[in-house]
Amino acid sequence: MRRWLLLFALVPLVAVLPLPDYWIFQLNYIGLYALTSMGLVLLTGVSGLTSFGQAAFVGIGAYTTAWLTLNLGWSPWLTLWVGLGLTFISALVVGMITLRMSGHYLPLATIAWGLSLYYLMGNLDALGKYYGLLGLQSLSIGSFDIGQGRPFFVLTWLILLAAALCMSQLLDSRAGRAIRSLKNGTQMAEAMGINTFRYKVTAFVMAALLASVAGWLLAHFQRTVNPSAFGLKMGIEYLFMAVVGGVGYIWGAVVGAGLIKLMDDYLQVLLPKLIGTSGSYEVIVFGVVLVLVLKYMPDGLWSLVSRYMPRRDRKVDWADADHLPETHKPQRGELLLDVQDVRKQFGGLVAVNDIRFQIKAGEIVGLIGPNGAGKSTTFNLITGVLPLTSGAVKFRGDTISGLPSREILRKGMARTFQHVKMIPDMTVLENVAMGGYSRGHTGVLSGMLGTNRKEEQRLFKLAQQQLERIGIGHTMHEQAGNLAMGQQRLMEIARALCADPALLLLDEPAAGLRHKEKQGLADVLRQLQSEGVSILLVEHDMDLVMQVCDKLVVMEFGTLLLEGTPKEIQESPVVRAAYLGTEH
Amino acid sequence: MDFSIASILMLDGFTNGAVYALLGLATVLVFTVTRVIFIPQGEFVAYGALTLAMLQAGKVPGTVWLLMILATVASLMECWSRWHHDHNLLSGIKAALRMWIPPMLIALLTWWSATQNFSMLIQALLSVAVVATFGPLVYRIAYQSLESATPLVLLIVSVGVHFAMTGFGLLVFGAEGFRNPSFLDQSWSFGPLTISGQVFIIFLIALIMILVLWLFFERTLFGKALRATAVNRTGARLMGISTHAAGQFTFLLAAGIGAVSGLLIGPTTTVFYDSGFLIGLKGFVAAVVAGLSSYPGALIGALFVGVVESFGSFWASAFKEVIVFTMILPVLLWRSIRSGHSDEEH
After folding, report:
1. Which of A206, A442, A571, B196 would bridge with A446, disulfide CB 3.0–4.6 Å?
2. pLDDT, position B343
3. Residue A105 and residue B325: Cβ atoms within 8 Å?
């Protein structure tokens, strides 16, 4: 926080420095551009979505204030909110329509949307057609004119810093971690109870709102608006700024905006002189630089800086935090999971053929079978990742087949994945804290404002406890991507445990574990069982399965082969035949 | 509006739609094989039309110089990467020459032909050859080393390529626009409708090309190999299909289709160095209608876009672009409702 205060204090300091007016003028533009590209950092760098429509949202903010102040004489301080409202609605519509589909539809839709808005602005009489609207007032507070110089610089950069502060607080919060998970596919996030679609729309709308504020500022800075500043070319340039500066870093937007603005001015003068005729030849350089950056420095310029910034471990300040409320646990022996004739067909192939089995509270059940028997598919049917062809799954009496996996989690069923799914650039602790997502409540706004401290502490305390319970508490400050394979699997179990499940579904938890670690895992599983957690285990390691399971379900070619205690299964000739073949 | 106006508008829409269909097909083609969303597709349209315009004027088209430069850059890159891969300078030089010689021959041939006053058909063929050759070079220079990047990164690369190609277009053609003469001056009347020779040619060429593409992908081994690359790159590689070659060939096709589209629309409108972008994007809207995956879908989508555009320009000419590009939103809505949730990417 001290660093932030220092940054905020720096703004008025720069304003009183004897800098030439030209530089203040440039810094004003850079601040405005950085504000817009910062939205793209959230959208592209953090959430893995892209939009070429930022300029269009700048345009909405600018035209709204221009039209309202000129025609109705409203105060700019009022029109800002109108512009934000209009931006909110249009971004919401575009986002809702496109974000359900795979990632590349959003950029396409925003290209089209940016173009049509540009032509709309350029053809409406009320908006002055391609000439735009002229003669806007500059911003003022009471009788103090903010104008175009130093006071405007202070206003813009304070807004920019405030946006940066809010965003960096957001990214380190419950909602922020959910947004950061979007880049790595949606399956894991959904399994942790996160509504990924909602967060995608949220990120898109937030980016648009930042652009709208920039548009409002720009309109009163230039005191005129015309469509060319809001066209697709500008939309692309904003993305360009973010990519060159470093699309994964908040400060990348600022660096990128600065660099591109200066380059733009310089090249617009230099290139026509070199070539001999006027024209916007700078796009050649921009295009080439963009490709080169993506090839050779995909993390942008700021990555050069951030490499040398010390990474500090999160301060452990949650020792005294309260526990999160626990969910209601079933009685031992109660029917927990009831799989009733579930069937999955992919075209003509019956991958899972009318499987039925039950799990009672307090049991550890192993689902085994040779490769390709349909174990993982069954697993995905139970957890709602795949839709059933027929049959039903009941959990604690409620039908859960047909529910999305995030709803199933909230009913008390948490899972791990056969191929570890995590966010490699977050710490182990943060990854595990995502498992507690469904037990928290704070949203985007309190994340931005930092009013979520209590809950954050509770979540981290929970995460640390689960890590220690599973025996890898010492890794909590590591980057998750740096862990060994076996530890990543244990981390997934800790993450699932954070959801406080009644039933834990583990997909091959022992794969990649060393012998010692396997023993540890067996101990953990038994300890969990003694605490009342039931477990469904898909596993190839027979030692482990035979050691810990109360009951085994054997599958072969999608059908149920046998169900029984480990001893019965071991002695069964049918199971032997399935695994080892028969003599003819 | 009466029937005759409506039929004229329909014809107009279908004519433009046929060109959009070609571009939409190229977009689908490139996306399915390489996962590149190829924004610069429209640039080839302008390059094609303007190259022919230059040849018509008896001048050496600037695309010739550009082609030589790109060929040199691409072969240097090829030489470097092959040299590093094989630890053998000779094999690097060989690979570079393979990359360098065909474009240079085409460039020199076109250079020589500029003053020969050849017939328009030969000039048209040369224009297509020059512009189509850009395809593999662009792929080699901008995309090849990023083959395994996410579609998102490839899309941003596309934007960079679009910027650069527009700028180069301005550099080599200047800001002036050109309108090419028609390939066929005859025209036929059917009641209120007049079908000009150019319209006839547009339909004919578009149909032939769509048919050829279909035959290529359904009936030839190489076409099937390309489709295999589209489905699973690693698998295709294991089967001995080079993804580099597949990508370069796809771009050759796309650039060629772009150039042909440029020749087709050249006589119907004045083409500037940056006109291609909007035309290409309309092909794009058509491809999006098809979900970037279906060729017949892209065709139907393109005809639809063309008709909407022509009726739009009749009722509200200033807003025709607004109408065409806003249309993508309901289309996407329809697609998202139909397709349900997107699948997990691995």
Report:
1. A442
2. 42
3. no
Q: Which residues of B touch A288 (CB under 8 A)?
A: 160, 164
Instruction: Write out the H or E segment, with its range, that includes residue B188.
Output: strand B187-190
Residue to substitute from A49, A51, A94, A104, interface B, most B β-carbons within 10 A: A104
- Could you give the CA distance from residue A430 to residue A480 in angstroms, rounded to a whole number? 9
Pairs of CB atoms within 8 A across A/B: 153
In a domain? residue B344: no
Question: What's the pLDDT band for B345 if we cut at 50, 70, 90?
Answer: very low
Q: Which of B153, B174, B325 sits opposite A115 (nearest CB)?
A: B325
pLDDT in tens, A406-415: 888 888 889 9
Within a domain: B108 = yes
Nearest to B242 by CA among B97, B76, B34, B80: B34
Rounded mean pLDDT, A265-274: 86
Contact B157 A294 (CB under 8 A): yes
Side-chain half-sphere CA neighbours of B98 within 13 A:
12
CA distance A253 to A234: 15
b (16+ CB within 10 A) / e for A543-566 = ebbbebbbbbbbbbebebbbeeeb
CA atoms of B165 and B167, how far apart (whole Å): 5
Q: Which two tokens stand for residue A92?
A: 């919401």
Instruction: Answer whether A52 sits within 8 Å of B165, measured CB to CB.
Output: no
3-state secondary structure of B156: helix
Cα–Cα dist A41/B312, whole Å: 37
Q: Where are the domains of chain A?
A: 2-231, 335-580
Distances (CA, A) of A330 to A244, A282, A485, A526, B273: 54, 68, 33, 18, 71
Which one of A97, A123, A186 has the shortest CB-CB distance to B318? A123
Q: pLDDT tier at B346 (50, 70, 90 boundaries)?
A: very low
Rg over CA atoms, chain B: 21
pLDDT in tens, A525-548: 888 888 888 999 988 888 888 888
CATH architecture for the domain at A335-580: 3-Layer(aba) Sandwich (3.40)
How buried is A2 (Cβ within 10 angstroms: 0-12 exposed, 13-18 middle, 19+ buried)? exposed
Number of C-beta neighbours around residue B175 at 10 A = 12
In a domain? residue B345: no
The 3-state DSSP class for residue A446 equals helix
Determine the Cα angle at B176 with ends B174 and B178, to 5°: 120
CA atoms within a 13 Å half-sphere pointing along the CA-CB vector of A229 = 24
Q: Do A291 and B167 touch (CB under 8 A)?
A: no
* pLDDT digits 0-9 by tens, A306-355: 888 877 788 888 888 888 877 777 888 888 889 888 888 888 888 888 88
Looking at residue A465, its amino acid is: Q
To the nearest whole Å, the CA of A278 is away from the closest chain B CA by: 9
pLDDT in tens, B4-28: 888 888 888 888 888 888 898 888 8
**How many structural domains comprise chain B?**
1
Closest alpha carbon to A188 in A449, A432, A524: A432
Residue B259 lies in a domain: yes
Q: Concatenated DSSP letters for B27-49?
A: HHHHHHHH----TTHHHHHHHHH
Q: Could you tell me if A570 and A558 are in contact, meaning their C-beta atoms sit under 8 angstroms apart? A: no
Q: From CA B218, how far away is CA B216, in angstroms rounded?
A: 6
Q: ipTM exceeding 0.95?
A: no
Residue B82 clears pLDDT 90, i.e. is over it: no
CA of A386: which chain B residue's CA is closest? B343
Cα A563 versus chain centre, distance: 41
